[in-house]
Amino acid sequence: MDFQTLAAQRYSLRKFSDRPVEEEKLTAILEAGRVGPTAHNLQPQRIFVMRSAEAQAKTDACMGFHFHAPLLLVVAYDPEAAWKREIDGKNHGEIDAAIAVSQMMLQAADLGLGTTFVGVFDPEKLVAAFPEELGTLRPIAVLPLGYPAEGAHPARLHGERKPLEELVKVL
Fold it and tell me: Please, are residues 15 and 53 in contact by the beta-carbon 8 Å criterion?
């Protein structure tokens, strides 16, 4: 599939099947997150695969929405490892992690899997649930990952987009 089609057709999947994600597909998705560009190539993103029932339940307890996907990916960044803009000290770790998330979502879609970017979670509660793993990291997203369930479809507003002229200004 060409990129324009992939980008337009990818949607936030909210209804997952029980079909497990093959290890080679998971590896390809994680690799897509690993190779994403980061400020000064510092690679502060950290990705956690919540595979066990215990890890999934602990993660799910921190989220405002529940999708019952076969896997959950938690994406975080290390603020100490991230580049800070010299002018104002802005930490680019969240941006770098968000780029990794975007690449993983597109790779998943290309492989026939679905994701949704879940930002409705309690980051402090998530860190407290996994203190050894997350420690001083800052989680930015939880990605439910899996195959679409029968009847899954994009949300009603998925195809509604503002015209390019409203979003882009050429100066």
Answer: no
* Residue type for position 18: D
Average pLDDT over residues 138-155: 95
Query: Which whole number is the average pLDDT over 9-36?
Result: 96
Q: Which fold has domain 3-167?
A: NADH Oxidase (3.40.109)
What H or E segment, with its residue span, contains residue 165? Answer: helix 164-167
d(CA 146, CA 1): 19
Beta 71-77 vs 114-115: how paired, if at all?
A: unpaired
End-to-end Cα separation, the chain, in angstroms = 33
**C-alpha gyration radius of the chain:** 17
pLDDT for 44-81, tens place per residue? 999 999 999 999 999 999 998 889 999 999 999 999 99
Domain ranges of the chain: 3-167
CB neighbourhood size of 81 (10 A): 15
Is the CA virtual torsion 142, 21, 147, 105 positive or negative? Answer: positive
